[in-house]
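Q: Okay, next protein. This is Lipoma HMGIC fusion partner-like protein domain-containing protein from Ditylenchus destructor. I've checked the sequence twice, so it should be correct. Can you predict the 3D structure?
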Amino acid sequence: MSDLTAAGFAWVFLSVVSTICIAVGFYLPYWLVGTISLNGKRNIVYFGAFRRCNYPVFDQILKHFRIENRCGRYATFADIPSIYWQIATVSIGFGCALSLVLSFLLIPSCCFKHILSRNSAILVGLLQVVAAIAVSSGCVIYPLGWDNREVRDACGSRSNPYVLGECQLGWAYACMLSGAALTLLCGVLSICSVKEANYYTRHDHIENNYDRDDYNTRCSSHFRSNSFIDSRTLVEHKNGRNSDSGSHKWQITLNSRYKAEPV
């Protein structure tokens, strides 16, 4: 049994979906789509923040450039061709990692009780808002680097910050923005995701157990005390009866020993 409301189950489901959207969009370099003309042939190329697909390499055997039709990341962080892309990589990477951690924490709450309270759910929601802001900020910063040499080779000389030129946005970029919007929605849903009565029920259950244990302890001590008093009273009463019986027998013995003589 779970502590989540119907909105809570929707919250967990949307959290997982938004995390998948952000992670897939962040890793796959289909953010920006352009073309490169090489050796009389137009080749489609794709850009991400730290990865790209179909990039030109120099062939040592043929002694000219050719297109390497595969995806790869830049060799080092410094090789990323724009400072804005470097900032976007850090910002979106942070938001993606935070969203992943929160999603893994939320999944068990669908199956088990007492994992989330109302306050902890709101805290998770606030962290999801932080993750959404980080991802959105990275997506907003990314177009500032569209004036670097690699992008202009693919998008033309007219490409500038927030100006695509001959390129177009890829599906991975839209996927990240959608994931950020869903994560922001999840932050709102967290407010009504946990049953409010569960905390008080659990608290009352603890208090009831404490009161019951205290009552049992007091009853046990009271019973032992009364038992001791009753047993002592019974012993004293018995001793009293024995004492009275002995004195009565002693009086009978005296009466039988000394007889009155007639005057």
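A: Here is a summary of the prediction. The first strand starts at residue 32 and ends at 38. The domain at 6-195 is CATH 1.20.140.150 (Butyryl-CoA Dehydrogenase, subunit A; domain 3).
Q: Noted. On to the next one.
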